Structure formats: C-alpha cells, structure tokens
Amino acid sequence: MNETVAAGLISQKLDAIYGYAYARLYDKDQAEDLAAEIICAMLTSAKNCRDDRAFWGYAWKIAENTFRKFIRRQELCRCAAEPEEGAVGVYEPSAETVYLEREEEAENLYLLRRELSLLSRRYREICVAHYVENKSCSLIAKEQNISVEMVKYHLSRTRKLLKEGITMTRKLGEKSYNPGVFRMDFWGDRNCFGDLLRRGLPGSILLAAYEAPMTAEELSVELGVAMPYLEEELEKLEAAGVLSREGKKYRTALVIITDAYETEFTNQTAGLYHSVAESVFADTQALLPRVRALDFSGRDYDDNRLMWCLLNIAMVNGNNLARKKVPHGEPKKLAPGGKGWVFGYDNDFKHHHFKGVCLKTVNPAGTAWFSAENYRVISPCQVYDHQNFAKKAEVIWAAVLGERADKHNETLPWLIEHGFVTCRDEHLAANFPVFAERVFEELCTILRPVTEQVAACMIDISRRAEEMLTPQVPAAVRDQCGDIAKIHHRLDVSAFIMEDLLVTGKLQLAAPNTPLCVWGVYR
Q1: Average pLDDT in the 466-471 region?
Q2: E strands in 426-499
Q3: 343 membership: H or E segment, kind and range
Q4: Is 187 helix (H, G, I), strand (E, B) or coil?
Q5: CA-to-CA distance for 443 and 299, rounded, in angstroms?
Q6: Judging by DSSP bridges, how do beta strands 332-333 and 518-522 pair with one another?
Q7: What is the DSSP string of 356-403?
Q8: pLDDT band at residue 165, thresholds of 50, 70 and 90?
Q9: Is 77 helix (H, G, I), strand (E, B) or coil?
Q10: What residue spans of 240-379 are helical by DSSP H?
Q11: Which residue, 44, 168, 295, 520, could crosslink 434 as a Cys pair with Cβ 3.0–4.6 Å?
Q12: Which of residues 415 and 119 earns the better pLDDT score?
C-alpha cells in the first residue's frame, strides 16, 4: 500500500486514533502527542502492508507497538530525573509498566499456542515431546520411528515455523464465526455414512474446501479449529471418500447444490410447469370413470382424494419411465460401503419440495409393497415419518395384506394415530388405495399417456439442470452432475406440478391425517 492511500484511510479514522490514545493515557496533552506518533508510524509502515484489505488489522498493531514505545520513553524520562533529597531505595516499576509487561507476555504466550495449534501432527508431537516433556532426541526418534537427524530437522523446522507464524497477522476465516449449513442427500442401497455428515465440523470442512483446495493449516485458520481436532475429521472425511487430497491440499469430493444455483435454476424454469400441470390434470380427470371401474380398495374415494393418488402414481411412473429413456449411470461403489450417490446442500433444505420419499418398499417375501411421497404442500394431511423405517414398513405391509396386527410393534400406535392404517378385530387395513398386482398393472396402462407427459418434462428439466450445474462445480466432480441432476430435479418436477394444481384450485387439501400420496400393491 502506498502512503497516499494510507493517508486517505487514516484521515477517516482520526477520531478513533485519538480515542485509542486517550483511553490508554487519560491525559489530553499526552493523548494528542501519542496520536500524532501513531499516525506517523502508520504512514511510515504502510508500504509494508501487502494486502490493502488487511490494513486496519496491521495499523492497529502498529498503534499498540507505538503506545508501548511511548510508555517506555516516558518511564525512562522519569527514571533519569534527579531523585528527591534524602530519597533512598530500589527503583520500582510503575503500574503501567507492570501492566504492559504482563500484557506482552500473555500475548506472546497466546501467539505461541496459536502457532503450535497450526502445526501438523508430527511437528507438533516432536515439539511438545522435546520442549514440554523434556524428552531427548534419541527417545523421540524411537517413539516416532524416525532417525535422530530427522528429529533435529523437525525441531529446527518447527522453531522456524513458530518464529515466522508469531510475527504474522492471522485473520480467522468467516466460517470460524459463521460456519454455514451443510446437509447431505443420499440415494442408494444403504447409507453407511452414519452421523459423519450430520455434524457441524465435517460439513464446514466440506463447504470451506469446495471452491478451491486448502491445506490443513488454511482450513484450521478458516474454521478457527486447532489442528489436533481438525486432523481427525480430515482423516474420517478422506476415508469416507467425500474429501480428496491434492498434494498437501484437501478438496471436497462431492457435488454441493448451492442456494445460489437452486434460486437461479428455479427462476429460469418456473414457467415450464404450468402447461404440463394443466394437461396432466385434465387427462387424468378424464380417465376417472375407467379407473373407478377397476376393482381396488379406495375406488370409492371422492374425486379430489383419488386424483391426488392417481397423479402421484403417474409422477412416480413418469420418473421410472424417464430413467428408462434417459438413464443415469450405475450406482457408484462408496468408500464406507454400499452403492449409490451422495451429494449435499449449503442450506437447511430450504429449496426442498419433499419431506421424504419412499419409493416401492417391498416386503422380504415379495408379496407386498407400498410407496409414500411426502410433498411439502400436503404436510397438513400426510407426513410419513421415516424414523423407525423398518418397523413402520412391517405394519404397512401387513395392512396391505390385511394381516393380524403385531401388538409388539412400537410404531403401530403412531401409524394408527396418523391415519395410515386402521385396526379392527386385531386385523390391519390400509387407509389408502390398495391394488392387486394385476389391477395395478392395468391402472398403469390406463395412466400411460399422463406418465409419458410427466417423463418428457422430467427429461427436459434434468437436461437443463445438468447444463447449468456442470460449469458451477469443481472440475473434479463434474462427472457426477448428470446423475445428480436426474436424481434431484426429476422428482422436483412432480412437486412443482402438484403445487401448481393446488395453487390453481384444481386440487384441495384433505382433512388432517389423510394419506393423499400413498398406495400399496399385493401379489
């Protein structure tokens, strides 16, 4: 930074500089002298500031150093003065001097600890072993399984790193106080990630290392987390395959669908759904007489409730048809186990149109299956909670087959309370449409024209999404964009259509605890 730019910045903060001086001296005349010295020191040292954005952090450090020199000079002047007649004894430092010395010692200790926390594991362990635990180089060499010469090299290198670091002005990154939100999405046979990506720190690491690779030290400063705690998380993320290493730097190895991307994509495609919604509704409504002529449980529902179910079946079948016509790749083998796709969001699912999707869950015997889609807009009527999923599925299968209730199944009361099943004479019944497999296949044939329209819209939307998403993600994960666009956006087409039909009044919500988008099939 040149002196002219620095002078312009300083001129805007003259009151603050004087206030800084007065707050430390409580003397108007001395404060004016100190402020003048601080301004001169700032101007003189401005050329040493390499980053204009860091000027004020650098300048206030200069102000602090100038204040200390000012106090020491005042003290020297006081000590040089002639003692009073008869005065004897030893010089005793002033309270101000004692305060400054303690402050300087505390700051140096803080800086040393800060730099120790940024050292990589081996440097840190060798430094602590030698200087804190007083271990010899030969003992450390044995413990670290390296040569004595390497121990001495690490100690020498550590001293250099600490000395350089202590003189630096380090600025913690934004994620140290505003870590952001990371949410995981998983599609596959089994989710083996557990709670790894549900915790705050791993998510913050993935967000920080997404746009550009970062060293462990850079991540430590950006996140405000000491290396001893960070290293373990880095190892876990790397082992899980969601963080990769490029030399000494780490890079997020999955696609993050950002808030900015979702907003832009929604704005560009918002006008594409209305005409499709109008068409599929009219065509499905025209098919109602043929559907009611089929033999299935639920054909006597009112038009509104039956339309919700039929449209949802067409949406799910449309997604399956789109997948056949323009398939995504084979599920990837994932590092923690299983196969599938894992990606994330930099927000708390704010753009999501579903509260969980349960597509064709089949019982072990292969004699029954069900599907349950929780569109956000039907939350007042239906939310099929995925907690205790396996236990709930057992009850639903039993209801589809009309079997006896398992009174020991702890999810049974919840499913009855929320209207998914009923129990009479100890036998379960589904409170949603249930089809024999042959009848369901006939229904799908009747709905085929609607399914075709939905599939065409899904294919178009996912193509647009892939074209927009690919340039916005790091090059290393661009090959994932096609599959993720298909998985994420095709189901959203269903939601946009349903939302449009609700807004235009063609569909209405039902009473609470009424499953609108659930159906079952038995063999």
Answers
A1: 94
A2: 427-430, 434-436
A3: strand 339-345
A4: strand
A5: 12
A6: unpaired
A7: EEEEEEE-TTSSEEEEEEEEGGGTTT-----TTHHHHHHHHHHHHHTP
A8: low
A9: helix
A10: 259-269, 274-286, 288-292, 303-325
A11: 520
A12: 415
First to last CA, the chain: 78
466, 326 contact by CB (below 8 A): no
The span from the CA of 161 to the CA of 168, in Å, is 11
- Buried b / exposed e over 403-428, threshold 16 CB at 10 Å, is eebeeebebbebbbebbbbebeeeeb
| Beta strand 518-522 pairing with 214-215 | unpaired
Task: Give the bridge partners for 370, in sequence order.
Answer: 361, 520
Task: Indicate the angle between helix axes 28-45 and 3-11, nearest 10 degrees.
Answer: 150
Find out whether 292 and 299 touch, Cβ atoms under 8 Å: yes
For residues 231 and 358, the model is more confident at 358
Crossing angle of helices 148-166/95-118, nearest 10°?
130
The pLDDT of residue 373 is above 90:
yes
Question: CB neighbours of 358 closer than 8 A, spacing ≥ 6?
Answer: 370, 371, 372, 373, 384, 386, 389
Can you tell me the mean pLDDT for 186-192? 81
Cα–Cα distance list, 130 to 137, 157, 165, 195 (Å): 7, 13, 20, 38
Q: What is the predicted pLDDT for the residue at 89?
A: 47
> Which residue's structure tokens are 């954005």?
53
Task: Give the residue among 302, 301, 307 at the shortest CA–CA distance from 285.
Answer: 307
The residue assigned the tokens 């040493």 is 48
CA distance 363 to 357: 17
Residues paired with 252 in a beta bridge: 243
Query: CA angle, 35 as apex, 29 and 36 as ends, to 5°?
Result: 95
Average pLDDT, the chain: 86
* Distance of alpha carbon 64 from alpha carbon 17, whole angstroms: 11
Q: How far apart are CA 297 and CA 174, in angstroms?
A: 57
Q: Cα-atom radius of gyration of the chain, to the nearest Å?
A: 34
As a whole number of angstroms, the distance between CA 122 and CA 112 comes to 17
Backbone angles phi, psi at 422, to 5 degrees: -125, 160
Residue 28: both structure tokens together:
């108007």
> How far is it, in rounded angstroms, from Cα 144 to Cα 135?
12
Q: Is the dihedral of CA 89, 94, 99, 105 positive or negative?
A: negative
H helix count then E strand count, the chain: 20, 13
pLDDT at residue 274, rounded to an integer = 95
* Over residues 410-416, mean pLDDT: 96
87 vs 234, more confident: 234
69, 22 in Cβ contact below 8 A? no
Cβ density class 93-104: b for 16+ within 10 Å, e for less: eeeebeebeeee
pLDDT at 463: 96
Token couple for 133: 């635990």
> What is the band of 163 on the pLDDT scale with cuts at 50, 70, 90?
low
